[in-house]
Amino acid sequence: MESPSIPKFTIPLSCFLTLLLCAATLNPVFTSKVCNFPAIFNFGASSSDTGGLSATLQRVIPPNGETYFHKPARRLCDGRLIIDFIAMGVGLPYLSAYLDSLGTNFTHGANFAMAGSTIRLPSRIIPAAGGFSPFYLNIQYSQFEQFKERSQFIRRQGGIYAHLMPKNDYFPKALYTFDIGQNDLSEGFFSNMTVEQVNASIPDILDKFSLNVKNIYKLGARSFWIHNNGPIGCLPYILVNFPSAQRDRYGCAKPYNDVAQSFNHKLKEAIVQLRIDLPSAAITYVDIYSVKYSLYREPQKYGFELPLVACCGYGGKYNYSSSVGCGGTVTVNGSQIFVGSCERPSVRVNWDGIHYTEAANKFVFSQISTGAFSDPPVPLKMACHQV
């Protein structure tokens, strides 16, 4: 099954050079040549989880992974995630989850992301109904701190595991990616907080985020690639659970998207401050929101259809139910029905009501990797610290 025809975003050479000059002027810590990232260390939630949830709290089951891996591959998607495309984009293998103890190779980095993770300590923990992961960002930072120390001890010790660990000089040269924050908003929404109350919590959430970035910087990180939050109000799990919310012209829940945009505005301000506080860091703010929202605004333009409807789900206008998820079973008229994939996930935006399809992830990566949606406007391959 072929993927939709996705137009490549091309930049004329003159414009490309202008972007680089602008970036170098505004942020002289950025390199002026193609980066050689030897490793990636990722922090986040389910949108970039490559095995954390599956290794610890909950097994990921079919039809997840069916499009590309032809097996669940420990991802909540029919195929690859944006972090997978990022790794490919800089010439590195897919990241192993830090918590995955079987067959893991950390030579070129590690993934600390965990489905359900938040920036702040969540009030409800999985597997409680509607709960969130205990592996919030502070814990992911602590795991990274331990990983850095123990991986080098293993390398010094030698033996069969030494070659599975990153070299010490990889840490300051690595790319540090972040895709987290949406679950902090979700936790507020599903805790009966008003939209205004969730919005008021954002400064504290981002204070916690900035603190973790600073702590990771202290451990030697210098190149940061930080995604903002996507349009949460366009996701079926919000549309189904908050049916009375005002809709925008594309069918998304406007108040919830407004909160996401407020988060993004304040995140951008926090990154400006981080650049002041961490003068040797190359910090790239990536506007995921705009790219993802374009899939709801003009899906046909990019080869997609039914952007508000889950591909793998069951029930109602949005093919989503909180009571039965992708890969589950539901009883209808006395018969058990498997909740499987739609016929053509390659033209769908949403996979399971919460996460995006591989086709959508690939589209998003094709846009953000150019630098056209970044601040400063540097492409992924040049988003590194000037050594």
TrEMBL record:
Provide the alphabetized UniProt keywords: Glycoprotein, Hydrolase, Signal
MF terms (GO), sorted A to Z: hydrolase activity, acting on ester bonds
The record's annotation in Pfam families points to: Lipase_GDSL
Signal sequence segment? 1-31
Task: Describe the family membership recorded for this protein in Swiss-Prot or TrEMBL.
Answer: Belongs to the 'GDSL' lipolytic enzyme family.
Question: What PANTHER family does the database record attribute to this sequence?
Answer: ESTERASE-LIKE ISOFORM X1, ZINC FINGER FYVE DOMAIN CONTAINING PROTEIN
Q: What is this protein called?
A: Esterase-like
